[in-house]
Amino acid sequence: MTPTASSTNPASPVPQGHARDPADRMPLPASDSMTPAQRAAAEALIAGPRKAVFGPFIPLLRSPELLGRVGKLGEYLRFDSVLDVRIRELATCVAARHTSNQFEWLMHAPAALKAGVAHATLDAIAQGRQARDLPADEACAMDVALELLQHHGVSDATYAPAVALFGEQGVVELVTLIGYFVMVCWVMNVARTPTANPSGAAALPAFPL
């Protein structure tokens, strides 16, 4: 299974997760049914770097003020973080696999490939296996992400090389990025927000395989 080769029809929405009933619980409200606050929040997203209301921001429209604050945090982490884009995309894919979130996987696995993450690394993440033969910075970011998600902290043996590679600011931003993407994945998992798949990437299988 590779993230760029899929039998999924890109034109067909991909259900969120693997629930028996994949129906969207919080679809995008019709424009004429939105409150002024919802409409303003939607317009701000469209005017910003995202250019649309999609993914977690659809259910987050139920709380427009929260949407705005979450959106600003994600905007910094995605577009302005001190971390290299390859590390950001890799860590996002780990968060997506950890939560079995189709939207973030289908968006960020192709972006990770474009940024230079190897096919084999993404295949391993998708299948829940340990990725092998990684560049030093990717291996370190993977160690931080996996320890953090499994144990809610990191060991001294993992922290020291992370600071050496990314600096204290980079470590703080890496940990925050992982937490941010887990958070928005949870929102979509609860809302069962489906996703388009324009790249034709392979959706995440149920885990464990």
Description:
The chain has 209 residues and is mainly α. It folds into two domains: 31-79; 85-191, AhpD-like (Up-down Bundle), CATH 1.20.1290. The chain is 58% helix and 0% strand. The chain is built from eight helices and no strands. Helix 3 packs across helix 8 (156-191), helix 4 runs antiparallel to helix 5 (102-115) and helix 4 runs parallel beside helix 7. The relative contact order is 0.22.
List low-pLDDT spans.
1-10
Quickly count the domains: 2
The first-level CATH class of the largest domain is given as: Mainly Alpha
Fourth-level CATH superfamily of the largest domain? AhpD-like
CATH architecture annotation of the largest domain: Up-down Bundle
- How are helices and strands ordered from N to C? HHHHHHHH
Number of helices: 8
β-strand number: 0
Globally, the shape reads globular
Major sheet details: none
From the N-terminal CA to the C-terminal CA, the straight-line distance is 12 Å
Helicity level: 55-70%
